[in-house]
Amino acid sequence: MQEKFDALKESAKRELESISSSKFLGELKAKYVGKNGEVTALLRGMKDVPADKRAEFGKMVNDLKVEVSTLFDEKEKQLKDKEMQEKFDSEAVDISLAGKVNKNGSLHPLNIVKNKILDAFCGMGFEVFEGPEIDTDYYCFQALNIPKDHPARDMQDTFYISDNVLLRPHTSPGQVRTMERKQPPIKILSPGRVYRADDDASHSPMFHQIEGLVVDKGVSLCDLKGLLDEFVKIMFDGDTKTRFRPSYFPFTEPSVEVDVTCCKCHGKGCSLCKGTGWIEILGAGVVNKKVLEMSGIDSEVYSGLAFGLGIERITMIKYGISDIRTLFENNVKFLKQFNRR
Ligand code: FA5
């Protein structure tokens, strides 16, 4: 009997040795110690064993079962350890390899300058209001005291979608839309894209403006000058000079234009500033009473000041950019220069 038991144990050992994956283990275990396995079958032969030998026989079969099960448990542990190690090896990361550096994006110089301008004015109590880029003839011109066939329309020739609807040539419609909705005191900025039939080193067909409007009791040209002087001080370094030049806009009276010294020639005169030494950054003035009245503001009680500045021109002056077109070419080498933290 003992020989039979030993042979069974040897056979289990041999079969276990030939197994190289834990997934075949379950089937083999069932063959020996499962419900219908060979060791379990020995117990069924108990009935043929003489009664006085049964206890001893039963103990021997149970011992064999424990021994064979232990062989399987050890093999299972061995295979699982080996498989785990193989998994670790195949998923290993080589920490000595050079890493991949993520390229960080950065703000476009126009956005850097736009944010700086908004910050400067918001610090003086202005709120931001954005109007539509496609607007009507009424808001772009008529409500700003530029009736049909007025010669001032030529200065802002633009792109029409239909007789009455156009790409706005300036952000001044923002003035009208604000005054129609809100009674004074008003202190708003209206930034956005604008469009004109222009194209040279300092004029782009699409560019960005920021409109400013203040309406309250007793607002005057002195307030406008003080406000813009403060703005220029915040935006430019000490060497930049400014000048206020009388000008004409149908929607302001009196009107001015503000120039700063040319970024390329520093006032000597060059092709960028057309030999004048100055670059215009904004138009401004005291809001025409007719415009206040058309927008529902009592011009006997209130007065206003307004300005419209070009973000591209201010960016060019701040960073010494001599051609406006470089701002729209999206040349990464050029844009990287502004990526300073
Ligand atoms: C106007 O657009 C007036 N709406 C500004 C204004 C607002 C005046 C409120 C009075 C009261 P002007 O056409 O001058 O004005 O344009 C204002 C600024 O936009 C200019 O000073 C300049 O900085 C910029 N600008 C004008 N045309 C271009 C262009 N084609 N490309 C880039 N910047 C431009």
Write a structural description.
There is one protein chain. By secondary structure, this protein is an alpha+beta fold. It has 2 domains: 2-90; 109-335, Bira Bifunctional Protein, Domain 2 (BirA Bifunctional Protein, domain 2, 2-Layer Sandwich), CATH 3.30.930. Helix content is 38%, strand content 19%. The chain contains 11 helices and 9 strands. The chain has helices spanning 2-17, 25-33, 38-44, 54-90, 109-122, 137-140, 173-181, 221-235, 289-294, 311-319, 332-336, and strands spanning 127-128, 134-136, 165-167, 186-195, 206-216, 242-249, 252-261, 278-287, 303-310. The strands form 2 sheets. Strands 1-4-5-9-8-7-6 form a 7-stranded mixed β-sheet, sandwiched between helices. A two-stranded antiparallel ribbon has the order 2-3. Helix 1 packs parallel to helix 4 and helix 2 (25-33) packs antiparallel against helix 4. The mean pLDDT is 91. The structure holds adenosine-5'-[phenylalaninyl-phosphate]. Adenosine-5'-[phenylalaninyl-phosphate] binds next to strand 5, strand 7, strand 8, strand 9 and helix 10. Adenosine-5'-[phenylalaninyl-phosphate] binds at residues 170, 172, 196, 198, 203-204, 207, 209, 211, 249, 252, 255, 280-285, 306-310, 312-313, 324.
